[in-house]
Design brief:
Radius of gyration: 22 Å
Number of helices: 14
Strand order of the largest sheet: 22-23-1-24
Shape: elongated
Helix content: 25-40%
Largest sheet: 4 strands, mixed
Low-confidence stretches: 116-122
Distance between the termini: 6 Å
Number of strands: 24
Structural class: alpha/beta
Strand content: 15-25%
Length: 421
């Protein structure tokens, strides 16, 4: 099993290219199930989660091929199975994104329930209730969602009880092939959701309200779509993570292939902590702070501060002058990295979903263990400034969502290497 070894205390410099967004690429891959033609996708991050979903589509009968320079082609015209089995789905919850497209296209499917998630409950009841409103018959049998709509899904008015990103994506894709008009209310507004809508609109689906929390979608009545070449948007979480690497080492670094508009809430927190930026088109340069101030963070849905950046900012708060307060409102178990950071000398006090981070304490390198994807990156960030050599174990979590992280950090001047235990 691989681990990362990091020698702390090095200043960073230079520039690094941001990869395509994993959380955009996953629904795009599922979206190809709605296409009548081969779909070519560029700027695809070659990370573990992407490979898992591509394997799932391959198991369904699709022809998938990875190309050079982060290209992927998918032809779903040969799909001959509608069963997404447990062996694949258990590896990645996002596999549930195949539910809406499979049901909309074929009128029936069986998709394994995703199971538990380390950072908290992420039930799919909102997905299922929405599909039922669209006329689907849903049963849970032996750990599988068994869904049928023999005459296709029907447009409906659906109000999501709470904002759900994958739920929104699933139902948007289902509505694209439904009979009639679907009216969705309280839709997630994340850039990844917006891109799915834009692709569908470019493929001939009439969608009103793109980018808002209310969508009206005119379905194609099960007519497959002509989906053109797709370029995956930049990964705003990866971008934020590398900016945190620059910030925690108080270094000047530049990220390229980024989309600054998607990072507004994150950049605002950096500025409140004392950092400044040079921004042009797809480039962001973070400049060192004269003094790193503490911050207050409340995680919420886009366009608010993303829960996927909470762990990284907790690591950054360790070098601030004062007490930072982080209020995690989306996932109940998303402070699992606290105990590992504490092993490095961090002073973090928890009170339910609120963490108080007492910055300015000396961090000492030690062996730490990743518990989830974003927690992994927080431990790496802490390792960049800890005294001594930090070993981050179980980095298969990291490999799910970060492409070549240790290589990119090396380019910036970090002393980091991947080793095997």
């Amino acid at each position: 099993m691989d681990y990362l070894e990091i020698s702390g205390g090095k200043k960073l410099s230079g520039e690094v290219k941001i990869s395509g967004a994993k959380n955009a690429a996953l629904p795009i891959i599922a979206l190809t199930l709605l296409s009548k033609n081969q779909v070519k996708i560029t700027n695809v991050p070659f990370v573990a989660d992407i490979k898992t979903l591509v394997q799932l589509l391959t198991n369904l009968g699709a022809k998938c091929k990875f190309g050079k320079q982060n290209k992927l082609s998918i032809d779903t015209s040969s799909v001959n199975s509608t069963i997404a089995n447990y062996d694949i789905v258990r590896k990645m919850r996002a596999s549930i994104l195949t539910l809406g497209p499979l049901l909309a296209r074929f009128g029936q499917c069986e998709v394994s329930l995703p199971g538990g998630c380390a950072i908290g409950q992420r039930p799919i009841d909102l997905h299922l209730s929405a599909l039922e409103k669209m006329g689907a018959n849903i049963q849970i049998k032996e750990g599988y969602v068994v869904a049928s709509a023999p005459k296709g899904l029907k447009g409906a008015r659906i109000v999501f009880d709470k904002i759900t990103v994958t739920g929104s994506e699933n139902i948007i894709m289902a509505a694209a092939l439904a009979h009639g008009q679907t009216h969705l209310i309280n839709v997630a507004k994340e850039p990844e959701v917006v891109q799915i809508c834009e692709i569908l609109a470019q493929s001939g689906v009439k969608i009103e309200g793109i980018g808002t929390n209310e969508l009206i979608i005119d379905g194609s009545s099960q007519k497959l779509l002509d989906i053109k070449k797709i370029t995956v948007i930049a990964d705003r979480i990866e971008a934020g993570t590398y900016l945190c690497a620059g910030a925690i080492t108080n270094s000047k670094i530049t990220i390229t292939n980024a989309q600054p508009a998607h990072l507004a809430a994150v950049l605002e927190k950096f500025e409140k902590m004392g950092f400044s930026f040079e921004i042009s088109d797809d480039k962001i340069t973070i400049l060192p702070a004269k003094k790193i101030s503490p911050c207050e963070i409340i995680t919420t849905e886009y366009p608010g501060f993303p829960t996927d950046m909470q762990a990284q900012f907790m690591a950054l708060s360790l070098v601030a002058n004062g007490v930072s307060v982080i209020d995690e409102r989306l996932f109940e178990n998303r402070f699992m990295h606290v105990s590992e950071l504490s092993r490095m000398g961090a002073d973090i006090r928890l009170n339910g979903h609120i963490a108080s981070v007492y910055g300015g304490k000396k961090l000492n390198a030690t062996d730490v263990m990743a518990t989830d994807l974003r927690a992994s990156s927080a431990l790496v960030l802490a390792g960049l400034v800890a005294n001594g050599t930090t070993k981050v174990h179980r980095i298969y979590h990291l490999d799910r969502g970060y492409e070549n992280l240790e290589i990119k950090l090396k380019v910036l001047g970090a002393d980091i290497k991947r080793l095997s235990e």
